[in-house]
Amino acid sequence: MIPRIAAVVIIFTPEEPVIANIQTYIQEFEKLYIFDNSSSTSKDVLGRIERFAKIQYLTENRNIGIGTALNLASKKAGEEHFDYLLTMGQDSTAGQDRLKIMLSVANKYSSIGIVTSIQKVQNGFLVSTEYEEEPV
Length: 136
What we know:
Blueprint: E1 5-11, H1 17-23, E2 31-36, H2 43-49, E3 55-59, H3 66-79, E4 84-89, H4 98-108, E5 118-122, E6 125-130
């Protein structure tokens, strides 16, 4: 059985690069929740976000914090019977085979609660993202 996979991106006063980032991973998911933690969002950016059929835009029209936004999106994904929910920030992009590797790990270790990548940062900049196939 193929698992149902959704993702959530928490955004805050997003600018144009968020659209390019979304385009690197949207095809991987059945649904993408975008939770906007802004009190207002550019109509141009919002219009471009809403063009994606897979996106469900969520907002409280204020900053409720990342944790609360993730909890609300997680609840929504549960109500819609998704098997997995991938969480990301507005600056996240997807590397090659990211989801495939993460699903492989999740399926291999059924008792695992969280699957994540290892990100290497140098001088404040992300230099690489790696995926291990063994739990840490």
